Amino acid sequence: MRVDIASRTPALASLAFILALLTSLAPRFLNAARAAAAADPAAAAGPDSVVARIDGEAVRLGELQDTVRQYQAATGTRIEELNPAERALLYGKLLERTINDRLILKAAARVKVPPDQRETLYRRFVEQMGGEKRLNEELAREGKTTRDVRAMIDQSIRQRAWLEEQFKGKIDVTDEELRRHYAEAPEASRIPEMVRANHILILVPPGSSPEVEAEKRAEIERIHKRLLAGEDFALLAKLSSEDPQTRDLGGDLNFFSRERMVPEFANAAFALDTGELSAPVRTKFGFHLIKVTDRRPARRLTFEESEPGIRTHLSNVKREQMLHEIVEKLRARARIDVYLK
């Protein structure tokens, strides 16, 4: 049940590139994307309506709506659920992103796109979509063609190549910076206490009646008695657990921190000694039985263990700072008029 019972926070997406726009055409994002289009504050206007101009060149509403899809694909945000003020604010920010992308693309216009790189990315996208036929069906529904997909791939390759050229030699991290960060940010290299546990889950559907709740509780209590009588936990998990992700593993959740699990589950698991079995635990998913099989105390990673992660973090910080500077310089040299209200 590793995914379902874990508390998850959506990752923030980079605003620099547009490859996520291709992902937004995948079937699992299309319904949300269409709902966002219906919630568009400028929905009364057509996709050819001009929402901004950059040095006289039009930025059209359809391009902004593509950026909205990219944002949804990357963050999972349900834009149609925002109130009008929040939606207008978000669309304004996404228009700024669209303008920034256009400025970078204009600066990267002379970058040559290797045909083999384009084709590799295109074939990967076709595979993700479930084949050419499915791709063409979805593109037709969106008013796009495979030529549009290849054009978006070309744009992304140009942007990436041009930006990487600007970053070259300027985002390297020195050993002094690595050691200073390790010394000044000890919490960043600290691993919390972790336990490894197996669990058995009996699902209780949301909104279940008291009778169903009682039936499920009786079922988990019967399994609990069998375990107390000495039956093997892993075997009973395979036979009885309703968690499809861990059932075949004997209920093994591997190591997890307290923060990764819903509070009721975490509190019960971290209160157990190694080898100890819990009483039935109720969470929003249903009833669990938990058996802790191993523990790891909290500790701080050594510098050597932390070094790769710190290097990546500091390099990304430098990259974002430099990207901001690049965009500000491009904007300062351009005339930008915004018409979106």
Query: CATH homologous superfamily of the largest domain, by name?
Result: Porin chaperone SurA, peptide-binding domain
DSSP, total strands? 9
Q: What is the mean pLDDT?
A: 86
The CATH class of the largest domain turns out to be Mainly Alpha
- CATH topology tier name of the largest domain: Triger factor/SurA peptide-binding fold
Low-confidence stretches: 1-39
Our count of domains comes out at 2
The N- and C-terminal alpha carbons lie at a distance of 46 Å
* Lateral arrangement of strands in the main beta sheet: 5-4-7-6
Approximately how much beta-strand content do the residues carry?
A: 5-15%
Q: Could you state the order of secondary-structure elements as H and E?
A: HHEEHHHHHHEEHHEHEEEHE
- Major sheet: size, sense and barrel closure? 4 strands, antiparallel
Q: How many helical elements?
A: 12
Determine the structural class based on helices, strands and strand pairing.
alpha+beta
Estimate the global geometry from the Cα principal axes. extended
Q: Can you walk me through this structure?
A:
The chain is α+β, with helices and mostly antiparallel strands and 341 residues long. The chain has two domains: 19-173 and 314-338, Porin chaperone SurA, peptide-binding domain (Triger factor/SurA peptide-binding fold); 193-297, Chitinase A, domain 3, CATH 3.10.50.40. The protein is built from twelve helices and nine strands. It has helices at residues 19-23, 27-38, 61-75, 84-107, 115-129, 132-141, 146-167, 175-184, 210-228, 233-240, 263-270, 303-333, and strands at residues 50-54, 57-60, 190-191, 194-203, 252-257, 281-283, 286-296, 299-300, 336-338. It has a four-stranded antiparallel sheet with strand order 5-4-7-6, with helices on both faces. A hairpin with a 2-residue loop joins strand 6 (281-283) and strand 7. The two termini are 46 Å apart. Mean pLDDT is 86; it is low at 1-39.
